[in-house]
Each structure stands twice: as C-alpha cells, then as structure tokens.
Amino acid sequence: MKVCKFGGSSVADATQIRKVIDIILADPERRVVVVSAPGKRHKGDDKVTDLLIDCAVRKLEGGDAAPAINRVVSRYEEIVNELGLSGAIVDALRAELLRRLARDGERNREQYTDAIKALGEEFSARLCAEAFQARGVAAAYVDPREAGMLLSEKFGAAQLLPESYGLLETNLAPRKELVIFPGFFGYTKAGEVATFSRGGSDITGAILAAALHAESYENFTDVDAVYPVDPRMSPDVVKAGIGIREMTYAEMRELAYAGFAVFHDEAVLPAIRANIPINIRNTNHPEKPGTLVVPTRKTIPGRVNGIASSRGFSTLFVEKWLMNKEVGFVAQLLQILADAGVPIEMMPAGVDSVTVVFRDEALPESRRQAVLDTINERLHPNTASFSSGLAFIVVVGEGMRTAVGTCARVVSALARAGVNLQMVNQGSSEISIMFGVSDEEMQPAVQALYEEFFSNECRP
Ligand code: ASP
User: What is Dmax (Cα atoms) for the chain?
Assistant: First the structure.
C-alpha cells in the first residue's frame, strides 16, 4: 500500500480537492491520505494556518479576532458549497474554533496556539473524508488521538514519541476503508493537541508510511519535481524544466536542511527508519514521475544533484592562542551557548579559533552581549564577537564522493562571479560542500553555480 500526503495548495479549493480524489482513485494501492490545511489559492492569498495563528495572536493580545475567524470559516464554507457537501462541518468548525479561542491562553501560549493551529488540518481532513464519501468511496476521517499519534510536549515543534509507531500500526492497519488523516498534529500523553513545526504535515505522512510499512510515500505538492536550485534564486531552472529525478535520503536531508522548501527536513527520518522511498509529485500533473528519494542510487562521478541556499545565519567567532591545547575549551563554550538555549548549526574550527554558526532567531541581538560577557569572564579569549548577515550555499551530490575537482569547479565559478567566500565546510560524508557568503551575495552565487553545473549540462 501507499501513503499519500497532499500539501496546502492541493486542498486549497474545491477544484484541487477533486484532483486529490481522482489521484487516489487512480491507484488502489493508495490507502492512506494525509492532508494539510487549505493553502494559498493564488499569489497574495493566505494560508488557513496563518489565519488561525492570527486568530490566536489577536486573542492573546486582547485584539479583535473576528475578521480572522470569519476568513477561516469562509474558506471552508466556499469549499463545502462548491463540493455540494452539508454545511454541518462548517458549523462544527466555527463552534470548535470559538471554543478553543475562549480558553485561557496565558498559562501556556504555545499550547493554546497549537490547539487552534491544528484545526486547519482537522477540518481539512474531515471535509475531504466527506468529499470522498460523496463520490461513493468508503472513506473515514481518523483522529490522531484514536490512532495513537503521540507527541512530546514541545508545543509548536513537537516530536513523535517512539511508541506511536506500534500504536499507529495496530490501529490503522486493519482498517478496510480509505483512511483520511490530518497532518501536522497529534496529542501529548496528557491529551493536549501538539503540532510539529511549520510544514509538518510532511512528517505525519512519513510517520504513517513507516508505521504501516508502506511500499512508498507519495508526497503531492505543486511542482513537477524538486528543482536542483531554488527557482526564486535562478528562475531559468523552471524554463529549462530540469528536475531531480532521483536522490538519496542523505542528499535530501542536506538539501531540505538548507532551504529546499518542498519537503520538511525532519520528514526524511521516519522514511529512513523504514527504508521507504519518497516520491515527490505534482497534484496538478499526476502523470509526471516526480522526484524519487531512495536509500541508495547509482551516481555519475562528479555529478552535482542540487544546490540549496538559506539566509538568516549568525556567527560567534572566538579566538584564543593555543586553544588546541586547552582541554575542554570548546566544551565550555558550547555549554555557555547551551545555557542560553542556542541550537548550533555548524562549527568550523581552526588551530586557535572556532566559529559557531546558529540561526539569527536562536539568539536575538538583545541577548548577545550577556553571552559575550560570560565567554570573556570564563574563557578569557583574545577576541569573541558576533556577526550577522550570513547565508549558506550547499552543493550536494553523492557523485562528489567519487570524483576529484568538484570543489575546484565550485570555487572557480564563485570567484568568476566575484563572490567572497567567508566560510567553507566539507562534511566528512563528502556528499556536500557548504559555503558561507554574505546575504547579498547569495543570489549571484547560486546563479553562478546553476550556470556551472546545470544550464549547460545535458541531464537525463
Ligand atoms: N498547515 C501547516 C503549515 O502551514 C502544516 C503543513 O501544511 O504541512 O505549516
């Protein structure tokens, strides 16, 4: 059997939901359907999840949530009317939204907001289940609580509790009807709604595919394939129609981490656990094969498979003579950052210096001086300083492991484009090389690499 997940744009309106039903009916192996909340119908439109967050924020800040509530409700109302379904589902959504908004949010704002955010997926799945039934399909909405989707209490960025795999298998495998399952949320052991981080419906789909030992996890979105570079950086890639046909889990992890927005970076892990291929496909062109993500693949030496890029990083640079001989220096530095609650992305080091890279929002400017004070007090470095405005470009390809000279090609292309490299980091897996450049140089750098590796290459 296959588990299929449909993203926000695939359930954004009645026309899209009809396409979802056709796709499912075209293959009897498609037995579990995971849906997102309705997304944008066109440029400038709102995602239902964003509207729900707006409702919660307004309530928490004592503002008027009524306009946002009405917009959420009318999104569902429009779909229900166009599909000719009963209005009961819209009444139920309105009542449940008002009930959750009326709770006391002050005790735990994240928990309060999660319960509201999750309604987007819950009612999207309820609505889709009715739409399938109206087409004569035996389909049932399945509540994540009944199914055993247990999550940690890290509201807004929850993690799956491992016992869920067994529970989900026991509860879902025997079902004969088509399972329609909401993405993005589950329940804590105490019975509270908790959501994954944004875009987390991908994670739900991957978890169900792993729990049910699916033959494949089909992730339907709105692109024909994963592009080797972000089309916002190099629009030519869309015109050229170059998509990645196949990549490995490791390549996907690297690319998704550094800004490939088509697939949530945490969603690869459940698939790896159960060795399930992921097929990223287009709801609007289901005849296209899409991109396949597999455990291993044949590689062409030197072939770069994708170039990801991401802005919004800061660095902490610390230098101290003979740092290499001071036992525990880096451990203490990391402890200071851990005490400040900063997750670390990377840590290139030299003989007497170390640079710690983290995301801007992990340590706001206002808290940085206090961290510097602690470092100076405890570690007595020559210098310690923060800087912002760093972007990363990650060149990924299993084929780089077996060829000499890919790094030279990258660096020459960047030099020709006049890009100043602030940092270079090659992971020991040798399937990726990471370059730190300034925010402003990220786009020209990606374009230069696109031209070097893709625009002139003939790809199958
Ligand atoms: N609706 C949620 C979001 O916008 C989850 C998802 O679509 O995957 O983040």
Answer: 74
Burial of 141-156, coded b for 16+ CB within 10 Å and e otherwise, reads bbebeebbbbbeeebb
46, 119, 121, best to mutate for ligand 1 pocket (most atoms within 8 Å of CB): 121
The residue type found at 8 is G
Q: Given the DSSP bridges, would you call strands 216-221 and 193-195 parallel, antiparallel or unpaired?
A: unpaired
Per-residue pLDDT at 241 exceeds 80: no
> CA 128 to CA 334: how far, in whole Å?
47
**Which tens digits make up the pLDDT trace of 374-397?**
999 999 999 999 999 999 999 999
Closest protein CA for atom 2 of ligand 1: 199
Ligand 1 site-directed mutation target among 11, 35, 48, 49, most atoms within 8 Å of CB = 49
Distance 199 CA to ligand 1 centre (A): 4
H-assigned helices in 340-418 = 365-379, 406-416
Integer Cα distance of 141 and 133 in angstroms: 10
For residue 198, the ligand 1 atom closest to its alpha carbon is: 9
CA dist., res. 349 & res. 77, Å (int): 56
Query: What confidence category does residue 227 fall into, taking pLDDT thresholds of 50, 70 and 90?
Result: confident
Distance 166 CA to ligand 1 centre (A): 25
Ligand 1 pocket at CB < 6 A: 7-8, 36-37, 47, 49, 120, 183-184, 198-202
H or E element at residue 100: helix 88-101
Give 28's DSSP letter: T
Atom 8 (ligand 1) nearest CA: 199
